User: Which sequence fits this backbone?
């Protein structure tokens, strides 16, 4: 079942709606954490260090300590560094310093306790979120615990899934504490997974022709950047587009892509003149006056558009292009990395990364588009405000051309009739999952190249389509992205 994500304010609202008093929730949280803690301890290493903070998180930790002691574990509780036996061998450290709602950087004795926890060779179990990680953003607040395991209460938080969160939370367990979070408050954010879009998948009928798979036009490939447009074109072709035209701005480009002769290379004006279902603008586009004119023509059309790379930079620099984008009735997909998002929002990259969800929401609203803010835990925001966090992918994707491949994948999905919201959520997840497949097969993460993603993405996509009948709709779930109905 698709997993909802809740912001701190939403978690507080769920607690209030449930009518539960804090001590009861604290007992449940502590008991659930103690169960997980016990499973992480070996018969020989039964010594547990429990770090307790001053608030509710510390209260949860004290329950953990009490329950473990009742089960005959040797438990030490510490609220400051001086209370920790430095030479003792611990089987487990429980981090109960700070949970959700942390508003200031950790410093002083709390920072020392974080350093102490991070120095231990044993497992570290964080309660709710690793101390020092902002639960809504994943930002490190000065210092943060690097947990091997995190048990989070009631529901997932975005800070566990994006920015620095995944490097600090380890394996995540959700304990609902007996509360029906979705009944108390409908989620607006979800983790992207195949079951999220299972109801939208459409395996091909046997009576099928290439016209039904759509026609994609790629605009890019300026001098010295032909490879970017070709990568996007190859990805669109291999992910199922019926025809792909690549409008190359470089007049000296080869007349054929020998690696994918099925691609039809054209002059950009000729490509725009084809009967296209989708336009992908930006891979290797450059920022020339000619590039700006082509982008303006694309935005003036009624064709769904994917904007990537230099198309985003041109929009950032031109109020006319921004207004043209915001006025579009056809669907627009934006795929910025943090630097491109910063230029679009007139912010610094640090500002964007400080609150990735907020930045992606503003971007989608300002430009009337579906937007993905790429990075660790890519954030997808739909035009209607629904948002998602993707958890596939790995550091091997930090390589030139991977964004061009994503834009081609998105073009192919749009051409095959998927809505903009569904195409973006599905395509981002598929793109990351392909990178994970490459790592599993030994091709990365170091040295993974963009072109290597296309084959695994095709295999995964076909597998998901073929398994579509087995991905039965759950009894209760969000609507499938872009369908407007439950699935």
Assistant:
């Amino acid at each position: 079942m698709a997993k909802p994500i809740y912001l701190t304010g939403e978690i507080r609202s769920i607690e209030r709606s449930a009518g539960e008093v804090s001590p009861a929730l604290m007992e449940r949280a502590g008991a659930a954490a103690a169960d997980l803690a016990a499973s992480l301890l070996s018969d020989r290493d039964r010594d547990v260090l429990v770090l307790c903070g001053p608030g509710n998180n510390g209260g949860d930790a004290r329950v953990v300590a009490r329950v473990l002691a009742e089960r005959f574990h040797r438990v030490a509780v510490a609220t400051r560094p001086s209370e920790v036996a430095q030479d003792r061998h611990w089987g487990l450290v429980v981090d109960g310093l700070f949970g959700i709602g942390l508003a200031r950087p950790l410093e002083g004795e709390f920072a020392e306790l974080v350093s102490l926890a991070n120095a231990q060779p044993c497992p570290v179990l964080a309660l709710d979120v690793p101390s020092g990680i902002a639960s809504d953003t994943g930002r490190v607040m000065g210092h943060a615990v690097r947990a091997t395991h995190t048990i989070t209460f009631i529901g997932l938080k975005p800070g566990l899934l994006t920015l620095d969160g995944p490097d600090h939370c380890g394996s995540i367990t959700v304990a609902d504490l007996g509360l029906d979070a979705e009944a108390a408050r409908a989620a607006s954010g979800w983790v992207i997974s195949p079951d999220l879009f299972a109801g939208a998948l459409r395996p091909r009928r046997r009576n099928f022709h290439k016209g039904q798979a759509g026609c994609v036009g790629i605009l890019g490939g300026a001098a010295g950047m032909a490879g970017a447009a070709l990568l996007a074109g190859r990805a669109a072709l291999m992910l199922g587009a019926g025809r792909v035209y690549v409008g190359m701005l470089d007049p000296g480009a080869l007349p054929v892509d020998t690696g994918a002769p099925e691609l039809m290379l054209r002059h950009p004006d000729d490509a725009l003149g084809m009967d296209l279902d989708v336009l992908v603008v930006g891979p290797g586009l450059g920022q020339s006056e000619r590039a700006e004119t082509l982008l303006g023509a694309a935005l003036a059309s009624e064709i769904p558009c994917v904007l990537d790379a230099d198309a985003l930079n041109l929009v950032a620099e031109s109020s006319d292009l921004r207004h043209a984008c915001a006025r579009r009735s056809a669907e627009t997909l934006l795929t910025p990395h943090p630097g491109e998002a910063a230029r679009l929002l007139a912010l610094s990259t640090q500002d964007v990364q400080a609150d990735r969800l907020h930045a992606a929401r503003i971007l989608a609203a300002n430009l009337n588009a579906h937007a993905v803010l790429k990075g660790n835990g890519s954030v997808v925001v739909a035009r209607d405000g629904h948002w998602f966090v993707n958890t596939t992918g790995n550091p091997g994707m930090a390589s030139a051309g991977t964004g061009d491949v994503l834009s081609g994948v998105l073009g192919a999905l749009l051409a095959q009739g998927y809505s903009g919201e569904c195409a973006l959520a599905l395509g981002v997840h598929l793109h990351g999952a392909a990178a994970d497949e490459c790592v599993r097969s030994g091709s990365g993460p170091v040295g993974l190249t963009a072109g290597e993603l296309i084959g695994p993405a095709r295999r995964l996509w076909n597998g998901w389509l073929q398994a579509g009948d087995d991905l039965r709709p759950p009894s209760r779930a969000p609507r499938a992205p872009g369908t407007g109905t439950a699935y």
Remarks:
- The chain has two domains: 4-187, 195-470.
- Confidence is low (pLDDT under 50) at residues 469-478, 483-487.
- The first strand starts at residue 4 and ends at 5.
